[in-house]
Amino acid sequence: xxxxxxxNERLAKVILKDRVILSxxxxxNFEGDVSKNKYILPNTHGYIYLTNKLSKAAHYGxxxxxxxxxxxxxxxxxxxxxxxxxxxxxxxxxxxxxEFDFDEEKVVNMDPSAKKITExxxxxxxxxxxxxxxxxxxxxxVNVIEYAIFEMGDWWYIKNGNSVSTEWIKx
Length: 171
What we know:
alpha+beta; 171 residues
C-alpha cells in the first residue's frame, strides 16, 4: 500500500541525513497548549503518521512552517528569508502493520459535521480520517521509496484537483 508522510524542511533534512523516519524522534514534539499555538496537533510518541492523501501530507508538512516563530528561527539558522518548504515522503507499507489513528480522530471530531467512526479499523481510519499510523521506524530506500518538496501553499492546490510542479526523488 502506498501512503505519504509529510514533515517540515528542518526535520526532512535530518531524515535524509540519517536515512530513517524515527517513530520517536527526540526533537519532534507537538504536545503543548493548543491555545498558544494553533499549529500544535495531538500526537502519541512512538508513532509515525501516514495518509492516503498527498494533499494532507503536504498540509501537515507545512503546519510547523506557517507560524512566524518558526520562520524567524529558520531565517536566523539558515541565513535565508525564503519560505521553508514541506517535504512529503512516499511510503510503501503492508496494511497489517498499520493502526487506527486515534490522534487524528481527536482533530477531526472537533468538526461537528465530521463523519462519526463506527469501527476502529485501519480501513475506517483511512476512509474517514485519511490517516493511519505505524509504531516503528521507516528506513529510507526500504519502506520510504521517494520524496518530493513542496511550497507551503501547494497542498491547497493539490486538494482542489490542481497539479503543482514538483519532482519525486527516488531513494
